[in-house]
């Protein structure tokens, strides 16, 4: 049984998918926001904190293709519920074992599980929402990630000054169980019932891998905005952790709102204009990262402007990217999502740890931000090339 566009279940499916994505990504965000507490408690470096983020999202990338195949077999509902329970087990295990090795294990375990939710929620939302609202629905679903970043940025630094990081993980794990129950009740049970011949007819368009390369540079260049914004404002510009968390949280909140507004525009423009819009957003992202970097010279206000702009355009680009993936491979949504998200999360693997390592090595955030700006420029160029893949017919 599957949800059909226009049956009225669309909003509920989008909301449940949004919650599942946020919870599924939580163990990739928490380390950056309780970085100071976990470094003091376990005696680890910034690069080791960054490694936790990189491992989580990197394992999501490594598991994306097989996660898509599993989703096609077991169904969207089972895939989402399984991931939420994986997050719960990983979070509670790391909290109780109280070691860096346990945090690494949780990052890996939850990272592979998150691949299931990415593929399953794209499939579920694409089935439950009509095409003329596809970008808005997929962007709203994806906004679960920046919403998680917003809540984490505001609450986790504050909580880590008062409670242990272990308790924060326990709370996150408990919420994951609630999300699993919600997904079981709301997410439609969509699974592949195609014959072997039908599956061969739904292969991805030639050159579809350009979407994976483009996603690699887009996410790789912008992930530090989420993972390192609070430490950057705290250590680089001398703000307090609560203030830094508030700035990052507000930026993520604005990004989530603007994500939906941009999605409305993308739906109005139609399928043919979605990828060119992403190219423009990546160009703006390049400038935003450079402005964020210049805060080291011109102060907190300039850095804040750069962060706000960076969050907004990055999230808008990602929301539209999900719709473009469905556009270019409508008969193989889970498979196309798996390929694209492999590149996406390989980018998320590469930069959090390398960003932290660059700061540790050079003693400044300047060069780390500059490398990210170059990556954003590369994303714009790659999406321009990806626009030639599977050209949509009118």
**Shape, please?**
globular
Query: How would you name the oligomeric state of the polypeptide chains in this document?
Result: single chain
Q: Could you estimate the helical fraction of the residues in percent?
A: over 70%
Radius of gyration: 19 Å
Unreliable runs, pLDDT <50, ≥5 residues? 1-7, 194-201
The major beta sheet can be summarized as: none
Percent in strands: under 5%
Cα-to-Cα separation, first versus last residue: 30 Å
How many distinct helices? 16
Arithmetic mean pLDDT: 83
SS-based class? mainly alpha
Give the SSE order as H and E letters. Answer: HHHHHHHHHHHHHHHH
Number of beta-strand segments: 0
Describe the structure.
The protein is mainly α and 394 residues long. Helices cover 83% and strands 0% of the residues. It has 16 helices and no strands. It has helices at residues 10-33, 35-42, 46-74, 76-97, 100-128, 134-142, 144-160, 165-186, 196-201, 209-227, 229-236, 241-269, 274-298, 300-328, 333-362, 366-386. Helix 13 packs antiparallel against helix 16 (366-386). The model is unreliable at 1-7 and 194-201 (pLDDT under 50).
């Amino acid at each position: 049984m599957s949800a059909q566009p226009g049956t009225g279940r669309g909003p509920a499916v989008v909301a449940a998918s949004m919650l599942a994505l946020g919870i599924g990504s939580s163990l990739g965000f928490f380390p950056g926001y309780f970085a100071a507490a976990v470094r003091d408690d376990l005696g680890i470096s910034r690069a080791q904190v960054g490694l936790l983020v990189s491992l989580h999202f990197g394992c999501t990338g490594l598991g994306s293709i097989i996660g898509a195949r599993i989703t096609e077999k077991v169904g969207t509902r089972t895939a989402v519920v399984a991931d939420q329970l994986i997050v719960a087990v990983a979070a509670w295990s790391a909290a109780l074992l109280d070691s860096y090795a346990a945090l690494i294990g949780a990052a890996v375990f939850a990272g592979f599980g998150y691949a299931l939710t990415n593929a399953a929620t794209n499939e579920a939302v694409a089935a439950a929402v009509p095409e003329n609202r596809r970008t808005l629905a997929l962007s709203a679903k994806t906004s679960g990630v920046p919403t998680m970043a917003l809540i984490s940025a505001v609450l986790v630094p504050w909580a880590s000054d008062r409670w242990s990081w272990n308790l924060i993980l326990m709370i996150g794990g408990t919420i994951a169980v609630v999300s699993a129950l919600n997904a079981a009740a709301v997410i439609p049970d969509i699974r592949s019932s195609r014959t072997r011949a039908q599956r061969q007819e739904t292969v991805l368009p030639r050159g579809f891998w350009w979407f994976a390369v483009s996603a690699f540079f887009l996410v790789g260049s912008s992930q530090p905005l989420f993972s390192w914004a609070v430490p950057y404002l705290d250590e680089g510009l001398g703000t307090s952790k609560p203030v830094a968390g508030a700035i990052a949280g507000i930026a993520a909140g604005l990004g989530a709102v603007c994500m939906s507004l941009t999605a409305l525009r993308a739906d109005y423009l139609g399928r043919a204009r979605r990828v060119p819009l992403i190219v423009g957003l990546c160009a703006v992202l390049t400038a935003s990262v450079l402005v964020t970097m210049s805060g080291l010279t011109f102060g907190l206000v300039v850095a804040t402007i750069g962060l706000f702009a960076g969050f907004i355009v990055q999230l808008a680009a990602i929301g539209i990217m999900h719709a473009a993936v469905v556009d270019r491979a409508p008969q193989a949504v889970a498979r196309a999502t798996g390929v694209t998200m492999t590149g996406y999360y390989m980018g998320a693997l590469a930069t959090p740890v390398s960003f932290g390592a660059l700061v540790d090595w050079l003693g400044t955030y300047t060069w780390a931000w500059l490398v990210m700006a170059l990556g954003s420029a590369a994303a714009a160029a790659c999406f321009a090339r990806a626009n030639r893949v599977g050209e949509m017919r009118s």
